[in-house]
Amino acid sequence: MAVNSATKLQAIEIAKGYLQLRGFNGFSFQDIADELGIRKASLHYYFASKEDLGLALIEDYTHSFQEWAKKHEELEPVEKIKKFIDMYYFFSQDDLKVCPGGVFCIDYNTLPTKLKKAVSDFQQNTQDWLEETIRQGIKSKTLKPTLKPKETAALFYSTAQGSLQVARMQNNPKVMKNTCLSLLSLLEK
Question: How many Å apart are CA 58 and CA 56, to the nearest integer?
Fold first, then answer.
């Protein structure tokens, strides 16, 4: 059977929706196959295992984040952080989905080793971007000079992740955005 890349891309998109609503352990190959209208065994032509599907999801999310960061690289640091908040807010507005990094974190202890590593790398890359953006903000004097970039990046990232969870529980996407904007206002000079 020839591998149809359109079907593979559709499977990834369907898996993204399930992942962000149910978690990695909350959906199966059968769920994806049913939505695609194909046999479950046919998915194995695209992904040898669910771990391979998870790795494909992380690769897709990583590529999307890199493209997003590139698109916003010319903005001032505070504006970049606001765009970051908007990106997370978009997740919460879309059926109260949560960030892929946060979803994988919830299931982290049950993930296979290669997938754990990919998830850790994905989250680290996001925090590295935040850290560099915070450094730029300190240098441009738009963020407080006393901030520790690495620790502040971890604080901001964890606040974004956590506020998505709270927004979901309260059925109110604005909780996420307001929480992160409040934190940003505390960091600004």
Answer: 5
